Amino acid sequence: MCKVDLAAKEAAIARVLEQHPRAADAGREHPALQGCEDVRWSDFPACPAGIPVLLHALLDKGAASEAARVLHHSLFNDIASMNAAMPTALPFLLRLARDPQVSVRSDLLALLVGVAGYSEPVDAGHEAMVLWFGSDSEHPEREQCRAVFAEHARVVLALAEELANSDERAILRQAAGLP
After folding, report:
1. Residue 155: how many other CB atoms lie within 10 Å
2. Please, are residues 148 and 92 in contact by the beta-carbon 8 Å criterion?
């Protein structure tokens, strides 16, 4: 498994800031990001403190693409698991994905579909799946993400309707408990 360590995540965020020094100030007043700097992101295991930098950089047209890529890697621990911070980041991502002015909106929609897929419960009776993805009790962030999707069901429904792929629409809707 390809595990991304915290130092690598922090270094990637630092590179985004080095390449785009003003990106951290982008969208300072954007309502979708209110409260993102109040979260103690580093309290989550393997989560970099610089998540707000990346969220703001998503609103900087020059930095947005790289910020989206780094954010994705920062909110996943490896190819089989989300970071425990994902349920906290999810409302910010949903609100940003709803904004048609966000240049990386399609990247955010793809990330949300991925999070919805990773949020699905793992069948405890399927030994290989548990071995690969871990049990639900080991990964409470799955259920927490489903709760966030459900809490924002109206937004999820609107975003799902924008997706061209019917399987992706179904994944996103299912994570929110929608038919």
Report:
1. 17
2. no
What single letter denotes the amino acid at residue 13?
I
d(CA 60, CA 40) in angstroms, rounded, equals 23
Q: Return the H-helix or E-strand segment holding 78.
A: strand 76-78
CA separation (Å) from 146 to 43, 107, 171?
A: 21, 20, 11
Q: Can you give 135-156 as a three-state secondary structure string?
A: CCCCCCHHHHHHHHHHHCHHHH
Cα within 13 Å of Cα(37), Cβ side:
10
CA distance 157 to 25: 31
Structure tokens at 173: 């809707």
Question: SS3 of 77, please?
Answer: strand
pLDDT for residue 1 is more than 70: no
Reduced DSSP (H G I as helix, E B as strand, rest coil) percent helix, strand, coil of the chain, to 5: 60, 5, 35
Predicted confidence (pLDDT) per residue in 32-88, tens digit:
999 999 999 999 999 999 999 999 999 999 999 999 999 999 999 887 789 999 999
